[in-house]
Amino acid sequence: MKILFIGDVIGHPGRRAFSDLLPAIRSEHAPDFVILNAENAAGGFGLTPEIAQELFAAGADVLTSGNHIWDKKQILDYLDLEPRLLRPANYPAGVPGRGWGVFTAGTTEMKIGVLNLEGRVYMHHLENPFVAGQEILKRLRQETPLCFVDFHAEVTSEKRALGWYLDGLATAVIGSHTHVQTADEEILPRGTAYLTDVGMTGGRDSVIGIEKEDALHRFLYSMPSRFSPATGRPWLNAVLVNADPASGRALSVQRLQRAV
Ligand SMILES: [Fe+2]
Ligand SMILES: [Fe+2]
Predict the structure, then answer these.
(1) Inter-CA distances, 251 with 1, 110, 191, 242, Å
(2) What separation in Å is there between the alpha carbon of 139 and the centre of ligand 1?
């Protein structure tokens, strides 16, 4: 069972890179299931129902998200309507949408659980992702041993710690949010594939996907300024996890970086 997870898609250049590059990745690696973090897909901030549908049509099976999922108000009702779109599970009760789901991988008929969590260090004050993650995974594993976790978090220590905490419960714990791919992929001792951050999909000539001039303006002058998705040299950052469907254990984890 090959699971492809694509890092935060940023605005139109990121969506374009995803739709342009996925066919070649499909023919090379034949993923059974494609998960994509879409929190930045609409103009760099948030997601709209139309863009979510565009990403599904282009080949995403499930969309995960993070702190930016709330940026476009149109998404709030859609979060309750579309089970293939996840927001982090550890928001308080009463928040629209859901943080996990069990899906069927099209070609294989195998079930896969997907869980989205958000970190708390330098981020929102949320429920504890370690406690929530362990509880939800125990429930998911009653339905399937294949369980993928997108941990949307800022600091490497929190991400690494969650990887250890969920080792053996999750098939993979892969980080998102910081938009720079790390080179620390490994399979932990109890069979969980781990990567601190998957990276982003968007313009490479940028500051984490935003036009470099926009980001520099804010660092130089500390004034509010407009942030636009970068267009220069779009690329796609992803990770491919191959797992044993009977045990849910990861067999391999491979980082991908593809330029348009
Ligand atoms: Fe992001
Ligand atoms: Fe984020």
Answers:
(1) 9, 17, 8, 5
(2) 27
